[in-house]
């Protein structure tokens, strides 16, 4: 399919304008949707928390605001532990990482796809179910709190933890995070959203000073947190390792007190990242409610806080507030009355099926020359599968986003194979290959009468070393004698391993040379990418088709095969821009060196906004993704409502020959100084049968039309923008004003 490049022709625009509001109704924005939250009734929860606080002794309060994970009774311990107060019926609380499944250090867990994949699904309901499925496993293991809600924006495309986040757009990330949070808390597990804020790179991870002006903060980097905090009311916000405009995030009064607790009226608690607390009174008075330990608590120990109260640097009222917030969250989410007990059986087969479904919804078809995909098993007798350890595994992200294998109970990459380091199997060491998910086996199952052969790097000790010339030659020879060649390329990344030096697959693993050699040998070469970041594709024009599969989780092998053979029609859309070159990205600078104290000098022009503002053509733009069918757009209507909202409606029709799902996206060009050409303000995802059409209506609230006005320290409504409706941020099909 030929991509339409911006600016595309507007097909139809029926614009009818009603009286504009003098005072736009900002209360329309980010209204809480959580059934669980509403059912609980926050006023009653507040009263109950107040009563409990009034009954607690000073010692009990001091013990309640710091975590000592070594004391946990849950097998494996998780990441943190708050001791309860049995005489008052307050249970212990165990917390654990949960980005892509439970990070329990000893109990088996399902590995779901990375959250960047979840974002690529653009499917709100899927995100809610994702939160729910992860929470079900956490509770079964004895955890009442999950730390999985990562949502720093993909400002640095090379960011080492991009796979744990939700892409580069604040509204997409915020909405998906709100849904995930809601799903988690509906299963009586407290959800944390993180890392608040300005934590967009791993470089200088322990305290780099992110320098971000207030308007950019409010319009971009704080917005996903604001949306999730207001809509889903997560129990906890985790402040990050870095400093923001001089102050550490966990003692940053502007971030914690002014914005989160005052402006957004956040009623939950602020917890530190592990080791991110740097003071006692300063942090507490800036809004930190709980310190998480790295071995042992340092600044919010009972002794330190008692002393701070004695010398008057922390008030007892503030201590009560810290305790009350935690109690309130436990009551509201249901952990107080129904704590996670652990020891429950996990339905791994069901979870595996869900993990596969998420992966199938998230895959992005980037290229499909002359409908080379889907493959037809009946017409293929020899299939070559090459590279990426596709005979054994799929890739996962490393660090606290990792999980244990449900079958072997070992951490990803360690079950049965000896991938990695001489230190053996460790959840924190790289690489991170998820076993029991071979693509080769899944393809064999779908093409039983074909001969499916594998070539690649069979070295299990150093799986990401460069392909040797001999391996490349063998792969090309196999491709030459096959009907189709499927090359799997992979880009490993993980927490605490720094950021990627480049988006290139050439170094150190030589994968570009592999793709080139295979494509030269067989014109029907299909590339499957497993990555948490955008990758460069210098071979893009020389291959027939490209599928971005992300880190697809333990259902990944089957999901990839199902997409390649058309059992699933791909419907993912990119949540990050894929550039042509590193040099095109906003953070490359002169030579790609990372700034230890990053200055967000591009301001609002981040992600697709950068490419649009600078007129740089990306390789694949934000919001882009093909389908095996085709969708047409028509009949735009843009209606301004008296409350300042805009109702955008239009029709999408499946005019191809296969059922499929589309993600029509609404962008707004806001006519105000320094605003980028357009911003995402809404979208829908739905399936259509061939010939079927759907009338779509998307409301653009006043806040979505506003800019942060530093002169009045508030939002300024800017009417009169241009509405764009597209199949991506550049494939604009309809336009109105
Ligand atoms: C540090 C990571 O930054 C954070 O995301 C994680 O939740 C904690 N460690 C606990 O493992």
Characterise the protein shown here.
The chain contains 18 helices and 29 strands. The strands form 8 sheets. It has a 6-stranded mixed β-sheet with strand order 2-3-4-5-7-10. Strands 11-18-17-16-12-15 form a 6-stranded mixed β-sheet, with helices on both faces. The model is unreliable at 1-21 and 414-425 (pLDDT under 50). It is an alpha/beta fold. The structure holds 1-deoxynojirimycin. Residues 79, 97, 147, 194, 273-274, 400 line the site of 1-deoxynojirimycin.
The stretches of 5 or more residues where confidence is low (pLDDT under 50) are 1-21, 414-425
Q: Which structural class do the helices and strands define? A: alpha/beta
Supply the CATH architecture of the largest domain. Answer: Alpha-Beta Barrel
Distance between the termini: 29 Å
Walk across the major sheet and give the strand order: 2-3-4-5-7-10
Determine the mean pLDDT. 91
Number of strands: 29
Q: In the CATH hierarchy, what is the superfamily of the largest domain?
A: Glycoside hydrolase, family 3, N-terminal domain
- Strand portion: 15-25%
Number of domains: 3
Rg calculated over all Cα atoms: 25 Å
Identify the overall geometry. globular
Q: Say what the CATH topology of the largest domain is.
A: TIM Barrel
Short synopsis of the structure:
The protein has 737 residues and is α/β, with parallel strands linked by helices. The protein has 3 domains: 52-333, TIM Barrel, CATH 3.20.20.300; 363-576, Glycoside hydrolase family 3 C-terminal domain (Rossmann fold), CATH 3.40.50; 608-736, Sandwich (Immunoglobulin-like), CATH 2.60.40.
